[in-house]
Amino acid sequence: MSTESDNQNTTSAGEETFNDAFQQLNLHDNEHAEGEAGERTEEEYGQTQLTLRAIVTTKEAGVIIGKAGKNVADLREETGVKAGVSKVVPHVHDRVLSVTGTLDGVSRAYGMVAQTLLDSPPSTMGGNSPLLGTHPIRLLISHNQMGTIIGRQGLKIKHIQDVSGVRMVAQKDMLPQSTERIVEVTGSSEGIRAAVWEIGKCLIDDYQRGTGTVLYDPIRNLGSNGGDSRASADRSRYARTGNGADFSENSPRRFRERASPSTAAVDEDMQTQNISIPADMVGCIIGKAGLKISEIRRSSGAKISIAKAPHDETGERMFTIMGTAESNEKALYLLYENLEAEKVRRSQAQE
């Protein structure tokens, strides 16, 4: 079982349909994906390994696992994937389903999950499912990979919906203290299988932008809201990321093994990552007289440069991070921690 994390709910205020979403994304993400599109056959996509996570409620998790673990055991056996749900934590009502395997196996696994939830709907659903015979699956997607899923002018996400028959809604904001967003996929079990297949192809094509993702952890989120003492203590640790880096104090350091050969590098230890930051948030990261960004550079050991002008029509500014995998991921975490703190400050100021 993986011990990962989730989101709590997708309110309409925090969501956007594909017609709105693409206007706020890094559309340059697609250029990377489209450059690689066509290099793999459908069979090759199907055999490519990936991990896809989703948020589930505690009651949904119980249905997915089944009595004595029967349902999840059947899922693993039939699809060949590794599947697990994060552990129960007091006062945390959501958990994370993590599925790892070939794209073919992962897509079939999510189809099975959807069918299981339809066959034995959790009591809390009580008719909240938008349409009879459908169930929402809340996928966790890296913010930097959202562009390739939505596509230019929303064409890719429209294609996914057309071929699968599902409805997809993307949450506007990144989840607290993470670089992940929720994409809610609602449809039949077969529709969800088909949609996950298409989404997985996008993620495979745009794999490099997913490296360095700071995974959402509801325990840290609970701690930031003053809900759990263990969660508050956990805030002193760094997030586990999409590259598997763990910045807890006693974690082993094996970052060189994870460095992607396709990453731009100065030498075998150095790599470069680019992230986009909303223009109205750049100042809070730089800080007065550059004190905050200087502290992030010092703490992480990474070199961080900031574009003087927006890189596209979204108005977002490009931050380039250069260093070892360890220093880069630490810098990413610190950058997004500052963003989250600023969002909290602004929301409190409006109250």
Query: Which blocks of ≥5 consecutive residues have pLDDT under 50?
Result: 1-37, 124-129, 224-266
Report the C-alpha radius of gyration, rounded.
20 Å
* Structure classification: alpha+beta
Helix proportion:
40-55%
H/E topology pattern: EHHHEHHEEHEHHEEHHHHEHHEEH
Q: Which overall shape is indicated by the principal axes computed on the Cα atoms?
A: globular
* Strand ordering within the main sheet: 1-6-7-5-2-4-3
Helix count?
A: 15
Strand content: 15-25%
For the termini, the CA-CA separation is 40 Å
Mind summarizing the main beta sheet? 7 strands, antiparallel
Number of strands: 10
Give average pLDDT, whole number. 75
Can you describe what's shown?
With 351 residues, the protein is α+β, with helices and mostly antiparallel strands. Helices cover 40% and strands 18% of the residues. The protein is built from 15 helices and ten strands. The chain has helices spanning 18-21, 29-36, 42-46, 58-65, 70-79, 103-119, 146-150, 155-164, 189-205, 207-210, 218-224, 229-234, 282-286, 291-300, 325-350; strands at 15-16, 49-57, 82-85, 94-102, 135-142, 167-171, 180-187, 271-277, 303-306, 317-323. Strands 1-6-7-5-2-4-3 form a seven-stranded antiparallel beta sheet. Strands 8-10-9 form a three-stranded antiparallel beta sheet, covered by helices on one side. β3 (82-85) and β4 (94-102) form a beta hairpin. α6 packs antiparallel against α9. The longest helix is centred in the C-terminal third of the chain and has 26 residues, at 325-350. The protein is globular and about 60 Å long. Mean pLDDT is 75; it is low at 1-37, 124-129 and 224-266.
